[in-house]
Amino acid sequence: MALRKSAKLPQTALLKQILKRCSSLGKKQGYDDRLDVPKGHFVVYVGENRSRYIVPISFLSRPEFQTLLHQAEEEFGFDHEKGLTIPCEEDVFESLTSMLR
Fold first, then answer.
1. Backbone angles phi, psi at 91, to 5 degrees
2. Are the C-beta atoms of residues 77 and 39 closer than 8 Å to each other?
3. Which is nearest to 89 in space by CA: 51, 41, 43, 61?
4. Phi, psi for 90 (deg, rounded to 5)
5. Between helices 63-76 and 90-100, what is the axis angle to 10°?
6. pLDDT per residue over 5-61, tens digit each?
7. I want to staple 66 with a disulfide (CB 3.0 to 4.6 A). Which of 3, 22, 56, 101 is the partner?
């Protein structure tokens, strides 16, 4: 399933907003979290424990990952201060990302 276009934003604008939010997160928290994130990657938080994962930006174009982003948008929206959180179990996320690599 592909990410459905939001009534508010087209898909490209939605992805740009996600990336902008990810890159500004460290500044809001008072530290630069990006120092350990390689170029071409971004951070997501997964599961109840909010485990931190570094994933390639290329995942944004994959329908499987877009489904997770849509679920995150529905559950958390874009106005929460705790970073991009993916609402799924860690083992499911790890399994999915290993298939995408």
1. -65, -35
2. no
3. 51
4. -60, -45
5. 150
6. 445 556 666 666 665 655 544 444 444 555 788 999 999 999 889 899 999 999 999
7. 3
